[in-house]
Write a structure and sequence with these properties.
The protein has 226 residues and is mostly helical. The chain is built from 8 helices and 6 strands; from the N terminus they run αααααααββαββββ. The protein has 2 domains: 146 residues, no CATH class; 37 residues.
Length: 226
Amino acid sequence: MYNNEQPFWFKTWVIVVAFIFCWPIGIVLLIGRINSSKQTMLDGSKTTRICMIVGVILILVGISGFSGRKILTALFYIAGGAALIYFGQQNKKKVERYRGYIDLVANQKVYSLDTISNTMNVNYDTVRNDLQKLISKGSFRGATINELTRSIDVASPQPMMQPVMQPQMQAMYQAGAGMVENVMNTVSQAANTQVTAKCPGCGGTTVAMKGATVECDYCGKIFTAN
């Protein structure tokens, strides 16, 4: 349902080529890539750094153009560079909001949009739109925005259907299941212990075996559970 595979026009080499031959298209592709998946949306520091570097380069190219009396072209470059730097700074603030939502909803189990709005000092419409964006990218799988209750409804695991058995078969099954469970528990405790791991990317928490390599459900970052 949530496909994190990016189209080829968002690949790094395509964006670099676009900047070389037509930098306005490069800016459009860069911004599109940033908003294309939960991984890139929540990678704030990298995004800001890229926007700052490219923006400064465009401004320097524009300044150098004044010497050749290409004033309009120079101003065009400077405006593009300034716009990219501004976008990078605004995106950094947006990423901070996203991480705040993940902390409140995923870690603290706060589902009221009004409470989230008051806690983060962000207006209700921004909270709703931001959360809807995160849901659409798969950060909160199965969640929906409930406009009537002004809350985010997080999906809970569905209970498994139990097969109907005869009493004798059920007793045998329970005895066997108990033995298997005891063995599995012994092996699990001997091998590893479960820990609540905090993602270094977005701050979301997940329960995993200590030392295991896991993928964050909220931002897609791969890290080791410690």
